[in-house]
Amino acid sequence: MTFAQGPLLWALVVVALVAVGAVLRARKTNIGLRRQNSELHQQRETLQRQRDELHVAYTGLTHQHSAELAEVRKDAEEETKAVLKAAVRTLQGLADEQQVVIENAQQKYGDDPGILADLMAVDHANSQFGRRAQGIAVLCGGWLGRRETVASVFDVARSAQGRIRQFDRVRINGQVNFSVVSKAVEPVAVVLAELLANATNYSAPGAPVEINIQAVPTGVCLIVDDAGLGMGQEEKDRAAALLAPRAAISLSSLGIPPQFGFAVSGMLAARYGFKVSVDSVSPYGGVRAVVLLPDELLTGDVPSPPPVAAHHDAEVAALPRRQAPAPSPTPLFPPVAQPIAAPQPTGPAATTAGGLPKRRRKSPVSVVPSTEPGQVRSNEETASRLGAFQRGTRSGRDMTTMEGPEFQ
Q1: Which uninterrupted H or E stretch holds 93?
Q2: What is the DSSP string of 310-368?
Q3: For 132-162, how does the pLDDT look when each residue is reduced to its tens digit (9 = 90+)?
């Protein structure tokens, strides 16, 4: 071995040793990294399991919170409705007592047209108060008053007309020879009154509102047309949801101030089996509301005149006539003719296969008031006509009690 070969050999040895050391360190580092990577994988899996457990716990707590919150809201809604129902029952009782006082005063002072007009104004305000109390009672799960006799479709429409503030804007057109069964008289009148209130409130002051009564193959339609601005699609969708409710309506969902009309109409329609819709446009560009009464809620029976009305008319007719009557003040309600009931049929009533009475088209169940101008009448005659009109207006809402089951 030469001298030059010795240092080269030693250099190669040193390089080899350094390489071996680097390989050993790299292998050790690789082993450490693998061990650390394995530990990180284990930690990640542990964290993922913990995350899944937290997600499950969070979901469970969320569902539990939602269920408890819904239960609390349900209890609060039921308690609110119970309190309102009890309060409204008291108000309805007071309204009935006030109605009795008004009727007694009308019988006592009915020969004076001025006093009678004032009492009719009080009666009109009381009827609006009663309608609102009835609506709140319905939303709180209560029932309307019970009725034992039928009423003609025209009388039901006129009763609804007398329950709104701007009653003088309503015109009733058409006539059918059918009556509404006793259990549905009050619900239909309340629903029609709510629709008339909306029609008069959301149309120009003084614009007429029409009620057209039409017979259709499946029953009778009460069509309310106004000349308002109409409804947008969103408003129609919301109204359709309220008029055909699939669940109980929450009082808190009716807005501030609450809009009771469609909610009350939908609940009564679903409860008694008729339909209400407001998705059409009236011929005047406003809203057309339609109440469809099926055959099950109609009858051919003729409503009998109230005995109190006949007795009162007899008393008024027996009053002495004044020789020179003073000019009577302008009455609050326009004088109209008293409805004349058609005679009862003498033969046995024909019924369908299901036991329902067949429709009779021989004579009307009520007469539309005549619009022909009449001669100047005395104070007693004017008072008699005012009383007759009011009795006809109330003929669709006279009840025997304020609470009772749906089917009497």
Answers
A1: helix 5-109
A2: HHHHHHHHHSPPPSSPPPPPPPSS---PPP-PPPPPSSPPPB-TTSPBPP--SS-SS-P
A3: 888 888 888 877 766 778 899 999 999 899 8
